[in-house]
Structure formats: C-alpha cells, structure tokens
Amino acid sequence: MLKAEDIFRPGAFPEYTYVSRISALSGFTYEFRLNQAIKISGFLTSLVGPSKMGKTILCEKVIGLEHIVEISGADFDEGTDFWKLAAAKAGLSYEGQFTSEKSIPEAGNRYSKKETFALTKDKIIDYYKEKELVLVIDDFHYAPKTKRMQIAQQLKDAIRRGFKTIVVSLPHRADEAIRQNADLSGRLSLINMEPWTVKDLEQIAKVGFDQLGIFIDDSIASQIAVESLTSPQLMQYICLNICTILEMDGKKSKTIEPEILKTAYRYTTANFEYGEVISLMRKGPNTRGKSRNKFRTKEGREYDVYELIVKSIAENPPIMQLKFEEIKDRIYNLLADSGEKPKPQAIKDSLIKLHDLLNGKEDIFRVLEWKEDVLYILDPLFLFYLRWGVRKNA
Ligand SMILES: Nc1ncnc2c1ncn2[C@@H]1O[C@H](COP(=O)(O)OP(=O)(O)O)[C@@H](O)[C@H]1O
Ligand SMILES: [Mg+2]
After folding, report:
1. Is there a contact between 184 and 160 (Cβ–Cβ < 8 Å)?
2. Can you tell me which atom of ligand 1 is nearest the CA of 204?
3. Atom of ligand 1 nearest to the CA of 233
4. Does the Cβ of 236 fall within 6 Å of ligand 1?
5. Which of 95, 149, 310, 382 has a CA between 20 and 30 Å from the CA of residue 247?
6. What DSSP state is assigned to residue 134?
7. Which ligand 1 atom minimizes the distance to the CA of 18?
C-alpha cells in the first residue's frame, strides 16, 4: 500500500505523480524537446526557467539516473577545475589519470603539464561518450561570474567533440556566459521552461489522490492549483499536507472537503522560512532615525509605504507578475477612501529601493525583481508564505 509521502514528493523525484507538460511555445512536451536537443551532436543545451518549475526533475526524467551526471553551479568557486569536477562526479579518479597517463610532469615545466592536462580532458570526454553520460550543470547562476565564462569556454570545445551537456539556469542570470556568448551562437539548443498552468498543476493532485483512493473534486483541485502559484513543488507540498491533516483527523475520510484547504495552506508554510525576508521588506531601507509617512487603511490601521507594498503583493488573486498600475490600485484599495494616499512616484521609488535592498543580500532574500514598471515575484514559495504564513507582527 502506497503512503502519502511516496505519492507526493515535494523534495524529490515524483515517481507516482510525474506530470508531462506540453510547452505552449513549441507545442511539444518538454521531455520530447529535451530528448531531441541532447541528440544533436555538437550542440549545447540551455534549459532556462524560474525556480522550482521542474528543471532538475525534467533532466532526471529524460536522461535517467544511470546516465545523468549532476553538477551544481554552487560546486564552483574561483579555483575549481571544471574537468576535475566533471571527472569526480562521473566517478573517475582525476589524479590517477593525471599521473598514470604520462610520466609525472617536471616541476615548473608548464608546457608538459599542459599537455598532460589536455590528454586527461580527452580521457574524460571519451569516458562520458563511452558510458553515454550527460553532464547537467544545474543552477549555473550560482557559479561565480568569471567562472561561468571559463566553463562556457571549456564547453565550447568539448561539445564539438560530442560531449553532451545541459546548462540549467534561472532566466536572465547566466545569459552572457551561454546564451549571449558569440562563441556558442549557432551551437545552442534553447529550451525555455514556462510556468505551470492551473490545468497541469491540477493533474498532480488528481493523479496522486486517485492512487491513494481519496476523492478530490475538480473545483478543489483547481483551487489548490491556483494557490500553488505556478509551482509543482508547492502543489506537492500542499497535497502532502492535506494527507497529513486527513490522517490526523483519524476519521479515515476519503473525500477532501473545502474546509480543510486553509488549514492545509497554513500548515504548508511551516515548511518554509521567509519570516526574516518579510520583516526586512516591511522595514525597508534604513531611514537613519527619520520616521516615514503613515497611511490609514479601510480597517483603520496605519502603514507606511513599504508595509503597504508588502500587503498589496499578498492580496487576492495571487499573481507572480504585477504591473505598477496593479500595485498602485491594490494599495489605494487597501486605504481609507477619505485619507491621504502615497504618490505614485513615491511607490515607484520604494519599489526600486526594495529591489536593491533584497538583491544586495543572500539568495533567500532575492525573492523579487522590479524591472520596467513590473514587479516579478521570483520565488513562488515566498509569495505563498506571504499569503498564508502566520506573522506575529502583521
Ligand atoms: N513533471 C513534474 N511532475 C510533478 N511534479 C513535479 C514535476 N517537476 C517538478 N515537480 C515537483 O517540483 C519539485 C521541484 O522541481 P525541481 O526540478 O527541483 O525544480 P527546479 O530544478 O526547476 O528548481 C520536485 O521535487 C517535484 O516535487
Ligand atoms: Mg533545480
């Protein structure tokens, strides 16, 4: 008998709830596109898409565990040797190859050292080809910028010799090194992973609950899908939490009632930690002691412009991309009709400052981007937490 945690797997390969999607741009499934791309010899595949959209899972599905070699951009620092890492991850001993290949290069003789290195690189490429391995450089944007350029340089030469590589990254982040690299142009297969539609997300719930013998009405599957904010991972989390609630109830209920959804959403936020991100956003940049203007809401509470921005993002319906006008309207809607309202320019200025504040910090804080009058929520889990997390000081 399968357990809920086998069916819904927010942190791992979802064997029983894997959903194959058709890319709206190409009209083909992502599996087909990726398969097609890696079959073109001499080409590098660049897979780009927002966080938690299923990029890694897609690679694992298409390539299979026996043939995939996964490296993360985070494995690199300035000094990391690309081939040494590629060898180690494939289970090859790099040092062993290095010395057994030729006599040990004389100390200080850079020429012979280089020659030995090139041979080693050949060996690694041959090994990958022989075992039909595909190297996936995941989260490429995590590699230091200068390193990304070096890696692209190494790949350029290697792919020509039949070395198969997929570079996975977030939109915009690694463009210069791969997609805008003149050396690689004409030798790139580009796959853009689009956010999940509500219909595709619903499938995860339907397929999963069906296997558990639990009935889920279409309208409920659809509500959960909307709250999942285009993220299959959130969908998996929420469904798993619904199961936990049903089990705790002990009623052995085999139907999902709409009443438990809000509880399931709140429980799901316990899996995430965005408390600090949200309090930083609400505080905004340091005012050096000066206090900000406060505005009165319809509920009779007072907030400054940063607190209002945070509130407006959390409003219904949950949306990952908000145009300036929408943010402004949401804020004005929150405020008392008669009272003072922040000027549009003041809201814009604060959005710019908020962007800079968050993007100057660690990765967990990089949840949004303000660009050309649009606010992009980069991290669906963050927006979900903002909507459903229990905050002590809200
Ligand atoms: N095709 C899919 N079908 C069902 N669930 C998926 C699928 N792709 C991803 N997921 C869910 O989303 C989670 C995150 O996917 P992942 O590939 O790690 O995202 P990314 O690499 O884009 O950040 C997975 O652990 C899984 O729970
Ligand atoms: Mg990933």
Report:
1. no
2. 4
3. 12
4. yes
5. 382
6. E
7. 3
Whose Cα sits closest to atom 15 in ligand 1?
54
Spacing, Cα 57 to ligand 2 middle (Å): 7
134-184 residue pLDDT tens: 999 999 999 999 999 999 999 999 999 999 999 999 887 677 888 888 888
Q: Which of 18-32, 88-102, 362-376 has the lowest mean pLDDT?
A: 88-102
DSSP 172-195: TTSTTTTTT-GGGTTSEEEEEPPP
Q: Which protein residue's CA is at the shortest distance from atom 6 of ligand 1? A: 232
d(CA 19, CA 17): 6
Sorted by where each starts, the structural domains of the chain and their CATH numbers stand as 4-11+197-269 (1.10.8.60), 30-192 (3.40.50), 275-388 (no CATH)
**Start-end of H helices in the chain:** 4-7, 30-39, 55-63, 82-89, 94-101, 110-130, 145-160, 198-211, 218-227, 232-249, 260-269, 275-283, 305-314, 324-334, 344-359, 380-388
Cα of 327 vs centre of ligand 2, distance in Å, is 30
Distances in whole angstroms, Cα of residue 219 to Cα of each of 116, 226, 342: 64, 11, 39
Ligand nearest to the CA of 10: 1
* DSSP sequence for 161-172: TT-EEEEEE-TT
pTM: 0.86
CB atoms within 10 A of CB 44: 26
As a whole number of angstroms, the distance between CA 191 and CA 189 comes to: 7
